[in-house]
């Protein structure tokens, strides 16, 4: 049996490794147009920040390690076309410019995603970077070391993480977000708190501009020097980061007749099978099922990619596995602030036809007399009709994310607020108040729900 | 309506405050033989360590604050006898030595627990302390400041926390635990790891002696000077802490005909009602229901006390509330080590007739390239027959406890290992590896269960 995998960053690399463990005999070959396989893209902001110096720390597994296990790795080999009828893939070897047709018994598509380049004038100028591959990280870090100021376009996860990276490197940072709020995937009042908390510790190290778009980059063949905003404001900069989102790489799949979902990512079932027999897909190129309300969602994250790659491999090898979907859990850090969420936001709930009820509390994260006590703000969201918990958001110093993980188990088991109030969370003064903020919020939400029903 | 509350540390204080919120008219009066009300007993180790200087930081609410809300606080008033037939309590005013009979419409017993004094010779010598009340903390702290060495009897939660306190104060600490393991409420191999990790960072600051009991204290009217172990070894010390467990204060309830449970704590139903009409009980003096297997358990913790006090007050005020029980979740810190658990241990499962299956993993707590990466050891325990998760233990630096809280939600909803594997935990490099240790452990446990069933 020959298993061909297109793409080798997270899902593809995981699928290859898992397939090897399940089948000693299968021929396993990974084609990637990248110059690296099996690396942590999510680690680039910390590499750029200087948390560690050697980019090879980002490599989970080297090509040599794969080869030792009998997994063939073909770097700089771009898949041009899938021919399902003859079970072949057309591969372009970018090293010697040859093209060959490769047979497969099972094909796993793990083509990932690519940065979205917004329609701004002169995005092709030198020193305007996107952040996706190891090469991007190396180039950005080199540029950061010799620069004084940087402008980041986009205030989502990557933008906020890079804000931290560049502040750590003592660059003056300007971040421009065109929507009225940074972290616009959160509910607006939570995004507003993030903005307030960050600007309160800014100390002239960075500036966050919201509600304005970048309309033009200026510069010459030596690189970008200035950024023009929609207000007309011009900002000098040494380089620019475009952190304006990503799009799934689905063209090769679509051209082969593979069905896409409503999110424009590849549609797969729980076994990671596409609509074409013996073709699986996994990672950032596929659409997920949001288990809260069984609706399609596209949540491109390394954790999901790993689980999906594993699941695809198990099924491709003839065994049985299912990946039920995601809760849209996520976490990011910006300086000392942890920002985390799971499930539906309040606005997301409304958009999907759920009438939400919510509560937001700001409480100490441990008992008030402990020396390192901090505030944590927690928002809990429930379905007004059923009382079911459907989402949560947390911001604060330290382990705000782990409180969200306590919620993920509750969301997964479709727990109601009433049921969650009976939760027995660990307590000791260095770790939480006697009544954890989570239980405190749940208790208030429970009272609100009771009042509604009485 | 007159609500009389006996005891005012955690459950009693909470009950009083909640009753006031629910009823503006009720007469609410708290009798306590203590000199303080409404304080955080759990904070004593951090007060002793010097994390904060003023013991009043431990007070949640002062007597004056209660009085302002029309809650009467009677300090140093000991309840001697409950007379259910006439709905009266006999109270001894320790200030003026008067005794009076007090009427009640609703009585809430929150008498708490007291330290257990083991049968060791000469425990009455000066400078042998137990740790329960604010006065204990004040005396111990004063003694610690002028001392060089201390011996702690008992390696449970309080013993381990005080080990940290005294190490922080640069005392030479000897801890003696008579069972073969410290933290004997955990499974032995986890306790062993705690021992190894602590002794590896000990640097002569402390010594932990296991499997030996203290048989005698020596000294004179100036205080204890030496401790004799079962081996004959004699250890010089400036003072001694007895951290050998606690017992529920149930005598006054028992004498009044109130039923005790199998754990010897007061038996209550989910509404915190005792077997006698209009008498409620809550806090460290009551028995809880362990929801994992609906069995009686006695888990005296501040978090439980608060929830129970609240529940008792709601029901005493004529409304309806239920406290379903506990998961036996707990956390403690000893120096840099977080020790946390929930549910049944493997041995506890066996003792309660469940055939357990478990897995223990030691993994990084975040992605390996992050500068502050640490190990976390996680043990997951499931019921072999049903595949249900029934317990977990975690040790490690930092937020090991929060991973246990992710489990509590799963235990509460009676999730199987198979279901838990579909959990979508937050991921970013500063917070967890791509696959969190929890999911990693669950995945291994799932494979083990699959093999058993195939």
Produce a short descriptive summary:
The structure is a homodimer of 454-residue chains. Chain A has 454 residues and is of the alpha/beta class.
Task: Give a verbal description of the structure.
2 copies of one chain form a homodimer. The first copy, chain A, has 454 residues and is α/β, with parallel strands linked by helices. Chain A folds into 3 domains: 2-39 and 58-114 and 247-316, FAD/NAD(P)-binding domain, CATH 3.50.50; 128-244, FAD/NAD(P)-binding domain, CATH 3.50.50.60; 336-453, 3-Layer(bba) Sandwich (FAD/NAD(P)-binding domain). Helix content of chain A is 27%, strand content 28%. Chain A has helices at 11-22, 44-49, 63-68, 134-145, 157-168, 188-200, 251-255, 302-316, 346-351, 400-412, 417-420, 437-453, and strands at 2-6, 27-31, 71-74, 77-83, 88-93, 99-103, 106-109, 113-115, 128-129, 149-153, 172-177, 206-210, 214-220, 223-229, 234-236, 239-242, 246-248, 279-281, 288-290, 295-297, 330-334, 337-343, 356-364, 375-383, 389-396. In chain A, the strands form 7 sheets. Chain A has a 5-stranded parallel sheet with strand order 3-2-1-7-18. In chain A, strands 9-16-10-11-12 form a 5-stranded parallel sheet, with helices on one face. A 5-stranded antiparallel sheet of chain A has the order 21-22-25-24-23, sandwiched between helices. In chain A, strand 4 (77-83) and strand 5 (88-93) form a beta hairpin. The radius of gyration of chain A is 23 Å and the shape is globular. The N and C termini of chain A lie far apart (64 Å). The model of chain A has no long low-confidence stretch (mean pLDDT 97). Chains A and B meet through helix 8, strand 21, strand 22 and helix 10 of A and helix 8, strand 21, strand 22 and helix 10 of B.
